């Protein structure tokens, strides 16, 4: 379980709170899993993400979490060197757009696209029904598309439909 899920739990924690606390939260998450081994369902990833989420909520003030995450995303979106392909600038614009979204929207998009969770699994993590999650995810994707069209790549102002296509791909719509 540890070998199969550690990286994804770590990535989830980094996306929520930054690298500064990720190792500590992941260690504590797997300590809880070890203590409650009989309670861990199959597949364990959604359960582990719930544990990690609860640890974050209990151990870090919400404002510190938001500030750390925004700083991390902005560090990923630093301007690319002139010889880097156009995709890098589009990725940068998309990450900047993601940083402008509310924390709940970012979490849904990250669970769906970067963590690869199904709506049912993501619903377990955030504590809502799968139907409610699908609606919230749809709205978060729309807000990301709007934010991405407002943040064109640095080198050139890309047409809104082009950034929206990248945004849809980035948040997992191609899996539909």
Automatic annotation (TrEMBL):
MF term (GO), any: sigma factor activity
Alphabetic keyword roster: Sigma factor, Transcription, Transcription regulation
Domain (RNA polymerase sigma factor 70 region 4 type) ranges: 93-144
GO BP annotation list: DNA-templated transcription initiation
RNA polymerase sigma-70 region domain segment(s): 2-66
InterPro entries on file: RNA_pol_sigma-70-like, RNA_pol_sigma-70_dom, RNA_pol_sigma70_r2, RNA_pol_sigma70_r4_t2, RNA_pol_sigma_r2, RNA_pol_sigma_r3/r4-like, WH-like_DNA-bd_sf
Similarity comment: family membership: Belongs to the sigma-70 factor family. ECF subfamily.
Name assigned to this protein: RNA polymerase
